[in-house]
Amino acid sequence: MKDLIILLQVTRSDYRFYPGEAGGIEGRMSSTSEIDQLIFGLLSNRAAGKTICPSEVARAMSKVEAEWRALMDPVRQRANELADEGRLQVTQHGEVVDGRRARGPIRLRLPPD
Length: 113
Known about the structure:
By secondary structure, the protein is α+β, with helices and mostly antiparallel strands. It has a single domain (5-109), classed as Arc Repressor Mutant, subunit A (Orthogonal Bundle). Helices cover 30% and strands 19% of the residues. It has helices at 32-44, 54-61, 72-84, and strands at residues 5-11, 14-19, 89-92, 95-96, 107-109. The protein has a 3-stranded antiparallel β-sheet with strand order 4-3-5, covered by helices on one side. A two-stranded antiparallel sheet has the order 1-2. The longest helix has 13 residues, at 32-44. The radius of gyration is 14 Å and the shape is globular. It starts with a strand and ends with a strand. 26% of the residues are buried.
């Protein structure tokens, strides 16, 4: 049976990820489909043109607050792959950038229609 993914909005920026039978992220890396669902799920809750921080995705995937930092590399890597596919934009200071070359904080947004 496929994992059931549920996003609960506790506050505007406090999300938690609870996979159905997978038992959390402990001891395994998250799949690209899990990351995709969270990225696009979080963006769907924002107004058009608004952004999310990759750390929001990592925090949503982590059942334990201290684990989210370890998830940042897979989240950023998948965001860059989605940007390569044209499904996502990586921005810095409001400008579209190559997320692989960007240093410092980046944001994610949907490309304009």
